[in-house]
Amino acid sequence: MNASSSNRSCLLGTGTRCSHWIEISPKAYRHNLRGLRHLLKPDVKLMAVVKANAYGHGARLITPLAVAAGADYLGVDSLAEFEEIRDLCEGVPVCILGPILPSEAQAVVASGVEPAVSSMEVALALARAARTTNQHVRIHIKVETGTHRQGILPEEIPDWCAFFAKYPLMRFRGLHTHFANIEDTTDHTVARRQLARMKEARQVFADLGQTPDITHSACSAATIVMEETHGDMVRLGIASFGLWPSRETYLSTLLSHRMGPELLPVLSWKARIAQIKGVEPGEFVGYGCTFRTTHAMRIAVLPVGYYDAYDRRLSGHGYVLASGKRAPIVGRVCMNMTMIDISDIPDPQLGQEVTLIGRHGAEVITADTLAALCGTINYEIVSRLGRHIPRMLAKEATE
User: Which one from 29, 51, 142, 379 is the annotated catalytic residue?
Assistant: First the structure.
């Protein structure tokens, strides 16, 4: 039984075996990719980025959805991530966006994956492995334009052109970069400067006789707010999961006097009440005695804690949804448990479903809600969700 089948039976088989779980909406994911695709010209490719366990959504659930939705490429962070989904992406090229080591070269070549390369040492290791097996290797060279993470310097370009001339099994598949400051601002001067630098680098390659098949620089934010970044392909991560890259990205679309894509959150996180108890006035709840009752309360225990990535910073000011109402967190979020105040919840029941992320009745808690409460970004809220948490496709009406 594969992982998705196991998760589905866990929840749907008995309805009670899972203490908490994550539901993925295929309809929302398809909707987001369609909306984002409408921003592109017909000849621009779309890479669905499924790295970091598909931003916490579950790579083995999301990958088939991306393939079925017509993604032209898939993006992962490492060879290990590719190995996790390789049986699900036949016919769709996969690019390793993160760094690889020379020691991985042989396995990378054998896999057929397309690595992003920023180091001549890695490139030479790949070339030697390719020569040993007589296999072509398509690589994407990342050029440094201002982020100062991965990336080759402009003065290194002649060496790379000589490299391709010397090793004909190495194919110059892509030239790409990554923006340092496009999400956190409405002033895209830095991004435009970086884009200009990448175009200059591409021209130097071309002048020396080497032209990539694809140039790509656009992340989700760039795809939405800067059409000039689209190039030959865009790389869609956070937006494909229905989350805006930032408030500034959303504001930029408004300032441009155009409608951005309608993004629907793909992920919901739910749990079941594991215990209900009454607490008398003047009693402490949780570690550190940080919360003390001033009146009689009903407390529910949820089997979710910071081990699962339910952030400890939610202690005392976060909330969940029960019976369509807000139930505040009381005391500290523990490693495997969280206590909530259900005094105002009508007829709470042991095993009752509550919502940590998602919609319940008229109320909704988004990843952005939790990010604001924790002083972080929505990327962190979803991508840290524990791999041990069962993930399943939500039952939905057909479109």
Answer: 51
